[in-house]
């Protein structure tokens, strides 16, 4: 997992979020638990009614805001994706005056394809870092 935090005060949601219950918020605070099966994790994601599905080549992305200070994106691969079965999660949350961005994932398919899949997602953390901090960026924790 790769995480950075920067001091920005932003409203993350441009539209009212559908209400997430306390249990969902507790689950979202944790990293993906790869001890669960791919099927179980997909079922859990589908239970987050505030997510909107967006198909992409090789799977489906689900994104939404359970609160006005958070944004989540999950990508779930399908059988056409070389890393399948795999799930990645991006988490953008405003906490304690900081905007925190993290990426985590679980894969049960081809290890090399999954590593490439996650490097692409983690690259977005680096882009976020450069855009919010300028040259040099924030120190990233892995």
What does this structure look like?
This protein is an alpha+beta fold and 142 residues long. It has 3 helices and 6 strands. The protein has a 6-stranded antiparallel sheet, with helices on both faces. Residues 2-18 and 137-142 have low confidence and may be disordered.
Briefly summarize what is shown.
This protein is of the alpha+beta class. It is built from three helices and six strands. The longest helix has 23 residues, at 111-133.
Question: Mind sketching the topology for me?
Answer:
Blueprint: E1 2-6, H1 22-29, H2 38-46, E2 52-56, E3 59-64, E4 70-77, E5 86-95, E6 98-107, H3 111-133
Antiparallel strand pairs: 1-6, 2-3, 3-4, 4-5, 5-6
Low confidence ranges: 2-18, 137-142
Major sheet description: 6 strands, antiparallel
Which whole number gives the mean pLDDT? Answer: 78
CATH architecture: Roll
From the 3D structure, determine the CATH topology: Nuclear Transport Factor 2, Chain: A
Strand content: 25-35%
Helix content: 25-40%
Question: What gap, in angstroms, lies between the N and C termini?
Answer: 6 Å
């Amino acid at each position: 997992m790769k995480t950075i935090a920067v001091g920005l005060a932003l409203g993350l949601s441009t539209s009212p979020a559908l209400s997430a219950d306390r249990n969902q918020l507790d689950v979202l605070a944790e990293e993906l638990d790869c001890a669960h099966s791919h099927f179980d994790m997909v079922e859990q994601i589908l239970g987050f009614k505030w997510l909107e599905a967006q198909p992409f080549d090789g799977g489906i992305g689900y994104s939404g805001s359970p609160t006005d200070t958070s944004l989540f994106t999950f990508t779930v691969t399908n059988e056409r994706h070389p890393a399948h079965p795999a799930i990645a999660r991006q988490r953008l949350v405003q906490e304690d005056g900081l905007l925190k961005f993290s990426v985590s994932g679980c894969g049960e398919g081809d290890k090399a394809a999954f590593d490439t899949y996650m490097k692409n997602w983690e690259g977005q953390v680096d882009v976020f870092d450069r855009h919010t901090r300028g040259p040099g960026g924030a120190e990233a924790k892995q």
